[in-house]
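Table S2 (text version). Query chain:
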Amino acid sequence: MKRAAMCLCSTALALTACSQADSASPSNQTDVARGYELTPMVEGLDIVWGAAFLPDGDLLVTEREGDLHLIDDWQLVPTPIENTPDVLAERQGGLLDIALDPDFEANRLIYLSYSKGTREANSTAIARARLSTDRTTLEDVTDIFVGEFKKSGGAHFGGRLGFMDDGTLLLTLGDGFSYRDDAQKLTNHLGTIVRINTDGSVPPDNPFVGIEQARPEIWSYGHRNVQGLAFDRANDVVYAHEHGPKGGDEINIIRAGNDYGWPKVTYGIDYSGVPISSRTTMEGVADPLHYWDPSIAPSGMAFYTGELFPQWQGDVFVGALKMRKLVRLSLDGGKVTEEEDLLTELGERIRDVRMGPDGALWLLTDSPRGKVYRMVPAK
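Corresponding structure-token output:
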């Protein structure tokens, strides 16, 4: 697979849309008024989906077609890491997110979410593996979770991973697109967020443990297609965002056992224009913290606690695929008090956003010539 070399640059330009042509040295882009500088650190990635920083600051990046790449000192290692899971690379499906074990420095374990099966019968899974000491291959690869459903088609896999402070692992699962009513059924994992231990076992304090026919891994349900997770660890808050249909993308505060309503309540309508529900709220259903209409197609999310942007501490950042921008949301008292669109001139689908160990915001763009960007204060 053809790859372009990493490129760093020193020239600052006014913020404009990036050229789609190959370039050995794309320029920094600076918006002085808004106070940030954006630098493309790596380019030539093919439909990237997720990323995880290693303890030394290097980066692991997933490509949806199934490759896992190491970015070593901001050089893209040409050969993908070997022995990744066999994925169903079908439309939205493939190799999705990646998360490091909280004790990675001791055990070198990583977790990969991916779509598993065939076009006619598939689900979302988590593979656990050990990264070899030379970082060239995965060892001891095993599935620790496979969704309890077999849907057809290549849509709505969910796939975001995130560790809670107690060491348990969250995975988001979509409703399968054509199976939306199943998001209200606890007998399967469609349209849920699940919580498991790192060996795949079920934590005994999960909300549906011991309930007849309910899947014990379920942490919350009534979701459409969650592709963003973020953690306010100081206040023990988990945020998730999900794609609505035509309108009705949501951010929710995730609490154990909550029903988030899909498809009983929604701010969106069917793509055909037909209403899905007459209700936007309902007793017993958790209301969204925020919603978008029209849809922005959110993907990736970060809760900012870094030092580089002190004015943004406590804000949430959301990537947008359809609207090709980065959204900043200020929060106060559990409410969104400000919304700002950033990087609209970039013209790229933002698949993921992470706060790096350096306090910068790191962005992955979704295209056959995908990039990794670093966003820092303007000089």
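Notes on Table S2: The longest helix spans residues 104-107. The chain is about 0% helix and 40% strand.
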